[in-house]
Every structure is written in structure tokens, then in C-alpha cells.
Amino acid sequence: MLSQRVIGPLRGHYDSYCTGGCALVVALALKDFYSRAGATDLLWILAPSAWLARFVGSIDLVYEQGAGYISHAHHMVVGPACAGVNFLIIGFCASTSHSRNTSPASRNGSCIAF
Q1: What one-character DSSP code corresponds to residue 89?
Q2: Residue-level pLDDT at 9
């Protein structure tokens, strides 16, 4: 009887809570990894940023072990501090929150805020 009272209010929202919980676990795991990672660990996100700077801005970036991508001519570093992982986490959380909203009004509000 107790389990029916506890599960009763969650019925119908179970999938939404599971999705939100999984998204939160993924976001926290990524944040934990990012807080301890160095430039070598973040090559998966630094390399595309360096390629884009090279392609769009004609900035020659050279990889240096432990520091990231550096342009001595432009005094620019693409390193762990500006990797964009925090933005990635925020975007991921916003997109999972947006997909969980069910009413048209809340979907429109989330879309405008996003």
C-alpha cells in the first residue's frame, strides 16, 4: 500500500524523471572529468576548435604538449580553460530539459530561452 502511495504521484512522469536523472548524471560526470583534465585529455574538443580558428581566421595554431594549441604570432592559446566544455554541459542540460517539457506553452518558453 505504501509503494502505491509513493509511486502514484510519479506515474506518468516516470520516463521524464529517468531522463532527467540520467542527464544529470552525465552532466556531473562530464564536469568531474573536465575539472581534472589537461590539454591532452581534452584533444577531442580542442582540436576541432583549433581547426576552425585555422580555417576561418587563418590563424596558425601549433599543438604543444600540456598546453594545447598555441599561436605565437597572434598571442593566442586554445587550451583547457577555453575548451567550451561548460557551454557543452549547459547546452546538453537545456536540450534535455526542453525535450522533457510536454505542454506547448512550456515548450515555446524553453525554445525562446534556449
Answers
A1: H
A2: 56
User: In this structure, which amino acid lies at residue 70?
Assistant: I
Question: How many Cβ atoms are within 10 Å of 38's Cβ, its own excluded?
Answer: 13
Kindly provide the residue ranges of all beta strands, DSSP E only, lying in the chain, ordered along the sequence.
62-64, 68-71, 76-78
Query: Distance between CA atoms of 108 and 19, rounded to whole angstroms?
Result: 20
Residues of the chain predicted below pLDDT 50: 1-3, 110-114
Q: Which residues contact 26 (CB under 8 A, 6 or more apart)?
A: 92
DSSP β-bridge partners for residue 78: 69
* Distance of alpha carbon 50 from alpha carbon 75, whole angstroms: 14
DSSP state at residue 66: T
Neighbours of 71 (CB within 10 A): 17
Nearest to 34 by CA among 24, 48, 45, 47: 45
How many angstroms separate the Cα of 16 from the Cα of each of 10, 99, 101, 104? 10, 9, 9, 16
Q: Give the length of the chain.
A: 114
